Amino acid sequence: MEAIKVLITDDHQIIIDGIKSLLSDEKDIQVIGEASNGKEAIEFLKLLEADVVLMDIDMPVINGIEATKKIKAEFNSARVIILTMHNESGLIKTLIAAGADGYILKNSDQSELLDAIRKVGTGNQYFSSDVTLSLLEKNT
Q1: Is the pLDDT of residue 140 over 60?
Q2: DSSP readout, 39-95?
Q3: pTM score
Q4: Which whole number is the average pLDDT over 71-82?
Q5: What pLDDT score was predicted for residue 137?
Q6: What DSSP designation does 18 have?
Q7: Type and span of the H or E element at 113
Q8: Which residues pair with 6 in a beta bridge?
Q9: What is the distance between the alpha carbons of residues 96 and 85, in angstroms, rounded to a whole number?
Q10: CB within 8 A of 62, min separation 6: which ones?
């Protein structure tokens, strides 16, 4: 089985380094690149195909919302997981509408991140329980 190829997009290098460290021992997940904003992520995808893009929202140049829209429009095979600290239902809905395949919070543990990458990397969606709860609370 081929490894799930991951591109990490975040404007904080320590977050990128931490995620790379968390994923380094996983045989079925391979980090193929990193980007510090949405524009870099889009440029990267023009050169190398990623299965999953881990995407922060608040970034300079092109933010995660606009980058997700562009990636989903331009790169058919790329799937996007939003990895953020934002848990507001309006923002979550905006990102789902933009085409996000998954949404997890930065306070998630390693097992949840791995689960999200594996699920989204194999064509499914993944929304953390906190995100689902946030959406449900606003609908009641």
Answers
A1: no
A2: HHHHHHHHHS--SEEEE-SS-SSS-HHHHHHHHHHH-TT-EEEEEES---HHHHHHH
A3: 0.93
A4: 95
A5: 75
A6: H
A7: helix 110-121
A8: 31, 52
A9: 16
A10: 37, 38, 39, 42, 70
110 within 8 A of 18, measured Cβ to Cβ: no
Q: Any bridge partners for residue 31, and if so which?
A: 6
Assigned token pair, 74: 């331009």
> Which tokens in the block code for residue 125?
């969606």
Query: Residue 35, SS3?
Result: strand
Residue 34 has, within 13 A of its CA and on its CB side, a CA count of: 13
- Tell me the two tokens of residue 1: 């089985």
pLDDT given at position 5: 98
Give the Cα separation of 85 and 4 in Å (integer): 24
d(CA 19, CA 2): 20
Q: What is the pLDDT of residues 8-18, one digit of tens each?
A: 999 999 999 99
